[in-house]
């Protein structure tokens, strides 16, 4: 039996909140992993429908939660993963081409490849922590790694895990780190400061 209610409390960083059933006074726990067909992150005030369930300790919780304002979930097509993935792959391919053409030092190519791997792992770990109510990776750490040539890996992780793509302050700062990184690398190469390194 599906019940109707609305989200009355939501902690986006930790990925959980509470639903108040329509016409009732009891709060029901809900975790982000129990939402179906999420087109965006839940927010306070969202009308939802859900099936009542229990957690491992027998406490009431909501399962198979759907946002009442959204249509039924559709399978996610591969095209929906295209934009960020394409930008990341084009960026890495461009760096690789620059290295092979002698326009970029080898160390720059290694920096982008290694830091992208680090960034990808950090986003995966943060997504996993959000789903399991564990200790999260500070956003400042994610931004720092992205700034230090890790942003292509971040784009891949954001798209694959559907993580950190909705929260506008984070997204805006992320793209700022991308611009700063590109400008900084271009300046270092143009100034000749990387000559003789790799």
TrEMBL record:
GO biological process terms on file: regulation of mRNA stability
Domain of life: Bacteria
Pfam families found in the cross-reference section: CSD, DUF1294
Gene Ontology terms for molecular function: DNA binding; mRNA 3'-UTR binding
Residue span, CSD domain: 2-67
Record's GO cellular component terms: cytosol
Keywords in alphabetical order: DNA-binding, Membrane, Phosphoprotein, Transmembrane, Transmembrane helix
Compartment annotation: Cytoplasm
SMART domains referenced in this protein's UniProt entry, alphabetically: CSP
Membrane-crossing residue ranges in chain numbering: 86-114, 170-189
Annotated stretches, region: Disordered: 43-79
Principal location: cytoplasm
Protein name: Cold-shock DNA-binding domain protein
Native source organism of the sequence: Pseudoxanthomonas suwonensis (strain 11-1)
């Amino acid at each position: 039996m599906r019940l109707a209610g609305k989200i009355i409390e939501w902690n986006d960083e930790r990925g959980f909140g509470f639903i108040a059933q329509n016409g009732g006074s009891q709060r029901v726990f809900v975790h982000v992993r129990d939402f179906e067909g999420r087109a965006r992150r839940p927010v306070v005030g969202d009308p939802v429908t859900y099936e009542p369930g229990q957690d491992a300790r027998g406490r009431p919780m909501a399962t198979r939660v759907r946002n009442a304002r959204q249509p039924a979930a559709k399978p996610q097509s591969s095209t929906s993963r295209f934009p960020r993935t394409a930008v990341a792959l084009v960026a890495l391919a461009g760096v690789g081409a620059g290295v092979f053409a002698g326009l970029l030092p080898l160390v720059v190519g290694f920096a982008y490849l290694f830091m992208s791997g680090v960034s990808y792992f950090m986003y995966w770990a943060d997504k996993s922590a959000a789903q399991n109510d564990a200790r999260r990776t500070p956003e400042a750490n994610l931004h720092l790694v992205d700034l230090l040539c890790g942003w292509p890996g971040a784009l891949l992780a954001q798209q694959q895990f559907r993580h950190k793509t909705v929260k506008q302050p984070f997204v805006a700062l992320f793209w700022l780190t991308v611009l700063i990184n590109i400008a900084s690398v271009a300046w270092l190469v143009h100034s000749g400061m990387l000559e003789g390194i790799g």
